[in-house]
Automatic annotation (TrEMBL):
Residue ranges of domain Tripartite ATP-independent periplasmic transporters DctQ component in the record: 21-152
Gene Ontology biological process: C4-dicarboxylate transport
GO molecular function per UniProt: transmembrane transporter activity
Organism this protein belongs to: Litchfieldella anticariensis (strain DSM 16096 / CECT 5854 / CIP 108499 / LMG 22089 / FP35)
Primary localization: membrane
Protein name (Swiss-Prot/TrEMBL): TRAP transporter small permease protein
């Protein structure tokens, strides 16, 4: 039986990020056309929201088994070695995500302690950085869920 895995929280977050980017970009274009000046906050917020969109979208793709990978070796292996390969893939991905969570959390904490402000709007820099370890932790959760589904045979190796 195949399940339809979902990452609802990340889907909603990615949708909101994309909608807000579109709205503030459109508003900026209209204001610039009418007044010959633009909003100062649009670039800083757009970059931040693009990062949120990227990590949230990657989390959804992980949960839905939609990341690009070469499955030729997986399909060629017998069941035992294939499961070991799936675990090795999880270990590699989890290692990277744990490092991002750790160092992203450390950077966020340091920025909070230092009171660093963003260059464009002067907002606390940690407001932007806090999303890096949070969304990486969600990606780690979704990677683990996907791997468990694949090991249990509840998810095809091909999306």
């Amino acid at each position: 039986m195949q399940v339809r895995p979902d990452a609802r929280l990340e889907r909603i977050l990615a949708t909101l990020a994309l909608a807000i980017i579109a709205l503030i970009s459109l508003a900026n274009v209209v204001v610039r056309y009418v007044t010959n000046a633009s909003f100062a906050f649009t670039e800083e917020f757009s970059v931040f929201l693009l990062v949120v969109l990227t990590f949230a979208g990657a989390s959804v793709a992980l949960r839905r088994n939609g990341h690009i990978r070469i499955g030729l070796v997986e399909r060629a292996l017998p069941k035992g070695p294939r499961l070991a390969l799936v675990l090795f893939q999880w270990l590699c991905g989890a290692t990277v995500l744990v490092l991002i969570v750790w160092f992203g959390g450390k950077l966020t904490w340091e920025e909070y302690q230092w009171g660093s402000l963003s260059p464009g709007l002067g907002l606390p820099q940690w407001w932007y950085l806090a999303w890096l370890p949070l969304l990486s932790a969600l990606m780690l959760l979704r990677l683990t869920q996907q791997t468990l589904d694949r090991l249990r045979g509840r998810l095809d190796d091909e999306p």
